[in-house]
Amino acid sequence: MENRKLKIRDLTLRDGQQSLFATRLSQGEIDKLLPFYENAGFYIMEVWGGAVPDSVMRYLGESPWDRLRIISKEMKGKSLLSALSRGRNLFGYVPYPNSVLEGFYKEAIANGLNVMRIFDALNDIDNVKESIKLINELGGIADGAVCYTVDPKTEEAPKPGFFARLFGKKVEEPERIFTDEYFVGKAVEMERLGAKIITLKDMAGLVNPSRAASIISKLKAAVKVPVDFHTHCTPGYGLASSVMAIINGVDILDTNIWWFGGGSAAPAIELVYLFTKKLGIEIDVNMEAVGEIRDHLLAARESLKQFDLGKLPKKFDPLKDKLPADIEAELDRAVAAAKGGDEATLLDACHKIEEYFGFPKPNEIVKNAEVPGGMYSNMVAQLKALGASDLLEDAMKLIPMVRRDAGLVPLVTPTSQIVGSQAVSVALDRKKGNPDYSNPSNQFISLVKGEYGHTPVPVDPAFREKITGSPVEKPYDVSSYKKPDNPILPEYGNVPLASNKEEELLLELLPTVANTFLRKLRAAEYETKQAENPAPKAEEAVVEEKVDEAPITGPTLKAPMGGRVISVSVKPGDKVSKGQVLLVYEAMKMENDVTAEKDSVVKRVFVKPDEVISGDAVLVEFE
What we know:
Blueprint: E1 5-10, H1 12-21, H2 27-37, E2 44-49, H3 52-58, H4 64-75, E3 80-85, H5 98-110, E4 115-118, H6 129-137, E5 141-147, H7 162-167, H8 180-193, E6 197-201, H9 209-222, E7 227-230, H10 238-247, E8 252-255, H11 269-279, E9 282-283, H12 287-302, H13 325-340, H14 343-357, H15 364-369, H16 373-385, H17 392-405, H18 415-432, H19 442-449, H20 461-468, E10 488-489, E11 495-496, H21 501-509, H22 511-532, E12 556-558, E13 563-568, E14 575-576, E15 581-587, E16 590-595, E17 600-605, E18 612-613, E19 618-622
Parallel strand pairs: 1-2, 1-8, 1-9, 2-3, 3-4, 4-5, 5-6, 6-7, 7-8
Antiparallel strand pairs: 10-11, 12-19, 13-15, 13-18, 14-17, 15-16, 17-19
Helix pairs in contact: 2-4, 2-12, 5-6, 8-9, 9-10, 10-11, 10-13, 13-14, 16-18, 17-18, 19-20, 21-22
């Protein structure tokens, strides 16, 4: 193992802040860190993609393109810059045609992106092959990510009686799908298609040390390109599994810097450095420069106090601070256990090291449920918003059923949100005495229909018919894709909503969020222009909006659950047919169609786009 160098992909500015602080790190805070990043020598810095494009527009009022451009300019090419995208879905929920993929990748590379980590939530190679091809053709580096997941736990069946045990048939264990060979096979296909890096992407932190050893060693034997390991510490495996990956030859390891590491994020580079010293492996990073970033990163974390659910670890400088003898002994014990394949001792030693430094303890709920931490926290927030927090345990127990019904999909964005939200919905169905899947979201319908791609195991045709109305699998027809409108805004001086190619791409990728962001941008520009060139002020007539307070006398349609209205497609006087979509609302991050229950005439519509509605709110009255 001597003379080996371990390359590092720093996740601090993207996955680290996304995992720990809801992707709220502002450009101003990033600007303070970049001068120190320039000389850190990270092989790759992940700075974009994932939730960044959505969050910086939605919560910070910033342009995602500006973020990429600024970081690229400041880094001067000294580290490769990477982003995360969902293959054919990019950052959204819709599979895009090749023209959109090409336009997006071309713009991203022109703005300084080097490495695009491409994954598909279903591990469907058909959904990543075009992205790999385009990235390579446009001069980028295609990083093919294989999403790690586990076979769901089998539900506990009642114990059979004596005679059943004596004469009954033996219960067959379900076939294991997610074997080492499954993941290696996906990696080999990606390399054949042109991936220049292969990543084992463990979004839920479920790769335990023994599995890290077996998969990484098999990947190293099967592919010629560098192998990267990405994991999280949520269930308590992250640090130990990273040590095991290093011992088994991983080329690149994903880490965060101290104040943004551990917990639901990837391991801290400082702890990895302690292990590489023990293993005689050189970590290919300037650790003095990392120390300078660490010193300034504490203030960045303090600026995110309102989103910070964890406690601060102790201050630590691995180049200067002497470890107590018992922690040195735990490091030695961990290395010996890792080399000897003793997983229990390795985990115990790593947990004691993390506990000494004050990193969060393993999340036993997430570990036992075998779901990503973000998926769990989303479900908690959704149920709290619905006033049904008491259903959390029921919803968690429903995840394996929903996952199997949907084709045993891996739990990674967006399928983790789709499955988690549907499990919550089924729990609510059962509480109300309704049949399971009474309210499938649009995304769940699309997933079961086949629009997201091929699931690891086929969906039962009878279940598909129940959810979609047809037993036949139907892939998404990219030829039916319609580019979002770019309207002229008379209220802001007759300018288009999106003023250039970059903004048009934002509208295509994240239409709802980009629409709001761009309208605010145009409004600010208009106000500035008006302030510079004030026009004579005309008296404006004040028109009060009349509220129709007449009592409801006709049949009504109510909201199945609370949420936010996205669009309304009918108005008073419209004749509607049974099954026709009347409006679309968002609940639990999923879109839901509200359809007419029979042929009717609309009398009144009580909601408008962007309005927040409560459960059982009256949406439409019919004549």
